Amino acid sequence: MASTTTLVDKPPRERILSTAHDLFYRDGIRATGIDKVIAEAGVSKVTFYRCFPSKNALILAFLDYRHALWIGWFEDALRRQSDRKAKGLMCLLPVLEEWFGNPLFRGCAFINTVAEFGDSFPEALAACRSHKQDMVGIIAGLLPAGELRFSLASAAAVAVDGAIVVAQFELQTSSAKTALAGLELILSGLHKIGSAG
Amino acid sequence: MASTTTLVDKPPRERILSTAHDLFYRDGIRATGIDKVIAEAGVSKVTFYRCFPSKNALILAFLDYRHALWIGWFEDALRRQSDRKAKGLMCLLPVLEEWFGNPLFRGCAFINTVAEFGDSFPEALAACRSHKQDMVGIIAGLLPAGELRFSLASAAAVAVDGAIVVAQFELQTSSAKTALAGLELILSGLHKIGSAG
DNA sequence: ACGCATGTAGACAAATCTGTCTACATAGGG
DNA sequence: CCCTATGTAGACAGATTTGTCTACATGCGT
């Protein structure tokens, strides 16, 4: 997950979206006021409201943007890892280690959004659900076709979400060792199930 | 997790805390104003601020209260299940199924709090970390003493947190089937590791 | 040169939030 | 009877929030 702070002279909509992304992800959505986004993006209020008719619209755009950013990174990182040695679900370990080690890591934006809004913002909830489904789909792609493919991918996704949360709880300095160790044990258990039966 | 709505004539501090618990857990902390807690608890503003000098103090009291409530329920439910058939980590399945089936289920209050506040409220973060450590300790109690005890308990906790999050994402009507199926697969994998090596 | 897109700066309204304050009621102990 | 503790009701201050509005600047195509 690269930072998104290269936005010198892009069109205002992109500047706003990129700024909102960084602030929403770092500080939480509710904690981030529109005025702060406007000031940090260096646009005027009129410009902002011409691009996004309301804060809710910005939130939905943020979720789309984050989705594209994260899924893009995830697929790329998996590709990089499976080019190396790791096989099957085990690719997930170095990939997540890379993410958790990023100093900007603050958990999963979609988990955090559901935690903040629950079902009080249905469109946002739908976007979060869709994101997680896509993640499961990509994880399923690591597995050979077969009866257990979807079950194993769903279980691995449960483990990944758990590891994300545990990593979020750990101190920055620990680089999420507990989360990754737990995930490794889980994935090796799932591997046995997948290969042996 | 029982509801907490039996608070007719308790002392005001308990009424406030119980009301705050229900609102904070259901709607989120930031989304719940002090005025709403006050109105719903049926106390006056002066009374409220005599019991809790600030909203942050109420939040910390809420986390303590929720911790006691949840850990109490968790230990009791595990005891009930291990009295029956389930053994070791497998006790977790019916226990979590019971929780996820509760219509008031809205995920883990501590995960949600970390998602809302991150490290912007260090005392709250510390309370959340402490809660999760206690949860890992209880899970470790399900396992025989041995080299792998702590590793397996940590891994199971990762899986439990993941299942909580996935259950939170699922529709109310699904009773969190995906989360529980994934957790079951994970726990059976961990069981193999624990017993065989 | 004109008109229009697009931009900035910032006042403003209306709501909401936390926290303090005054004024008043009530019940129990000495 | 009176004092104090504990409670209610609600006004108020001050900050912050979202969203609208006016007034002005700048650049571009025709």
UniProtKB/TrEMBL annotation, chains A, B:
Residues 10-70 form the HTH tetR-type domain. Pfam families: TetR_N. Keywords: DNA-binding, Transcription, Transcription regulation. InterPro entries: Homeodomain-like_sf, HTH_TetR, Tet_transcr_reg_TetR-rel_C_sf. Transmembrane segments: none annotated. PROSITE patterns: HTH_TETR_2 (PS50977). Residues 33-52 bind DNA. It comes from the Bacteria. This is TetR/AcrR family transcriptional regulator.
